[in-house]
């Protein structure tokens, strides 16, 4: 009997080493909500295993086994929301990149009953890999315990799915090697704006999971060897992030968009690095602001970060890695 329980303990340890995770908690107003309360329960809620088939309809919300029990939560346009990671361990353990998409449910369909089909998804947030021409490649998303982002204030009011995906790239050098950790929250956006979100893509459809010919749309960011040779650049999968302008174009081809996204990301990183030091200097010389700063789980620093460098009381700005500090 003793040996049996010892065996069970070893088996449990082996399971624990698998290092997978889900994102079952939605963050609203800086607070964690209950597990699977506003996030659709995913097929992997128990085994935590990733999705690897980007052509499956499961690539939308990974919820095909879901009877549909999640509730819908009201969030104001312009507010910060997010997802909390739960797993073994409870952080984005694998090296990889992250995207957050939103899709508006048809006006005659309750979002809790909607499958997210069609050319409806636009990107609102991304955490790409950082490269420096071939010396190093780093993954700012690695190790995050929460992912937060802002719903663009120009987002029209209505019901939306918010889809987070962490694309783990540690064994992605062959087709279907990349691991997708996906979750969708159901939200009612209030106080919305008059923007036109875009470019819009479909899931499945946005990704091939393969390295395609440049002429057909260049998508090297999913099937990629991140170790050797060290990639000189990284092209983030998916379209450009919609920041809330009214000029979102609904039908840009995925390939052209992907290339643009990569170029934009590189430029952004360079520009915001200098901005970040300016912001830091300003913060130091001015009086400490009380009651301002990033909310709990919000970003408050890291290489390339140009936003708030302080946290709302009582949260402390904590370094997660070189590229990401978070209010915890
Ligand atoms: Cu894993």
TrEMBL record:
Residue intervals of the CBM1 domain: 292-328
Entry EC no(s): 1.14.99.56
One GO term (biological process): cellulose catabolic process
Keywords: Carbohydrate metabolism, Cellulose degradation, Copper, Disulfide bond, Hydrolase, Metal-binding, Monooxygenase, Oxidoreductase, Polysaccharide degradation, Secreted, Signal
Pfam families on file: AA9 (PF03443), CBM_1 (PF00734)
Protein name: lytic cellulose monooxygenase (C4-dehydrogenating)
Cellular component, GO, one term: extracellular region
Localization, UniProt: Secreted
Example of a GO MF term: cellulose binding
SMART domains: fCBD
Region (Disordered): 245-293
Cross-referenced InterPro entries: AA9, AA9_LPMO, CBD, CBD_sf
Low complexity: compositionally biased ranges: 250-293
Family designation: Belongs to the polysaccharide monooxygenase AA9 family.
Enzyme class at the top of the EC tree: oxidoreductase
């Amino acid at each position: 009997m003793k040996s049996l329980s010892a065996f069970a303990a070893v088996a449990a340890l082996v399971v624990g080493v698998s290092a997978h995770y889900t994102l079952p908690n939605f963050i609203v107003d800086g607070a964690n909500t209950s597990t699977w309360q506003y996030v659709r329960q995913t097929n992997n809620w128990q085994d935590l295993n990733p999705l690897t088939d980007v052509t499956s309809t499961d690539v939308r919300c990974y919820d095909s086994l879901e009877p549909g029990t999640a509730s819908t939560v009201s969030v104001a346009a312009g507010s910060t929301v997010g997802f909390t990671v739960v797993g073994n361990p409870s952080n984005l353990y694998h090296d990889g990149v992250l995207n957050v998409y939103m899709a508006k449910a048809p006006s005659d369909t309750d979002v809790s009953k909607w499958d997210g089909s069609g050319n409806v998804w636009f990107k609102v947030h991304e955490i790409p890999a950082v490269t420096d021409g071939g010396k190093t490649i780093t993954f700012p998303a690695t190790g995050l315990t929460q992912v937060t982002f802002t719903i663009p204030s120009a987002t029209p009011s209505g019901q939306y799915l918010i889809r987070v995906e962490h694309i783990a790239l540690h064994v992605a050098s062959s087709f279907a090697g990349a691991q997708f950790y996906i979750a969708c929250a159901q939200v009612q956006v209030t106080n919305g704006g008059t923007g036109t979100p875009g470019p819009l893509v479909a899931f499945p459809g946005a990704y091939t999971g393969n390295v395609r010919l440049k002429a057909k749309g260049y998508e090297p960011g999913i099937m990629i060897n991140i170790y050797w040779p060290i990639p000189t650049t990284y092209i983030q999968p998916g379209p450009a992030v919609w920041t809330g302008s009214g000029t979102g174009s609904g039908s840009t081809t995925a390939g052209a968009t992907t290339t643009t996204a990569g170029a934009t990301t590189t430029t952004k990183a360079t520009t915001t690095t200098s901005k970040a030091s300016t912001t830091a200097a300003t913060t130091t010389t001015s009086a400490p602001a009380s009651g301002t700063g990033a909310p709990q789980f919000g970003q408050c620093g890291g290489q390339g970060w140009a936003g708030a460098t302080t946290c709302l009381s009582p949260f402390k700005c904590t370094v997660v890695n070189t590229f990401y500090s978070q209010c915890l």
